[in-house]
Amino acid sequence: MTTNMRYGFSRAALWGGFAALTVLAIVHVSLPMLRSDNPMHALLYAQRWLLVPHIAAGATALGLGPLQFSRRLRAGSPARHRFIGKVYVLCCLVAAMYAALLARHYPAFFPYSVSVNAFLWITFTVTAFVAARRRRIDRHRRWMARSYAMATTFVIARLPLPIPGYDHLSLAASSYALLVITLFALLIAELVVDWPGASGSVIAR
Questions:
Q1: How many domains does the chain have?
Q2: Backbone angles phi, psi at 90, to 5 degrees
């Protein structure tokens, strides 16, 4: 197996695994919250005009993100890469802002945790966009990795993690858990962009 084939397989396995985790998070946590007997149902239904755009934009950003790391797409169709990038930026801004608006109705520290996450997501995304506009491509890729790391917190925070009691955390504990997950996602992003050979395996140059 050639080096390029190994890198291609690594990328496919990475994104395929993340797609599977996304589906697991949605089925295990997100969909049950919409049931009428769920304690969160009334609050979520009351905010449906915020919730639906947030989910749609967030899901679109999660789906488009991996395409932006595709070397084949960038080289073969730069115009399409730029178009997808603009859609991704718009979706990130909508998802992040609506997340902050949704969270403001929750008690405890949760609104602040979500606001920190949303602020970082918007900042990283806008910085990546500005870097691309200025043709600072290496910087653009790095900030894109950080932006997508913030997008993945939606998935990570909803995974049934193998931590005793994690599925039954109070809202206050969940507030701090979100901050920890945000820092963890950023750490992974930094490791990816600086890891030797990562440019070939994950964020191909």
A1: 1
A2: -60, -45
CA angle 157–161–166, rounded 5-degree value: 80
- The C-alpha atoms of residue 142 and residue 156 are separated, in whole angstroms, by 21
Q: Which domain holds residue 157?
A: 3-201
Per-residue pLDDT tens over the stretch 72-84: 888 888 899 999 9
pTM of structure:
0.78
User: How far, in Å, CA of 139 to CA of 42, rounded?
Assistant: 44
Confidence of residue 200 (pLDDT cuts 50, 70, 90): very low
Q: Which residues lie below 8 Å from residue 9, measured CB to CB, with a gap of 6+?
A: 1
Q: What span, in angstroms and rounded, lies between the C-alpha atoms of 162 and 178?
A: 16
Condensed to tens digits (0 to 9), the pLDDT of residues 100-140 reads 998 887 776 788 889 999 999 999 999 999 999 999 988 99
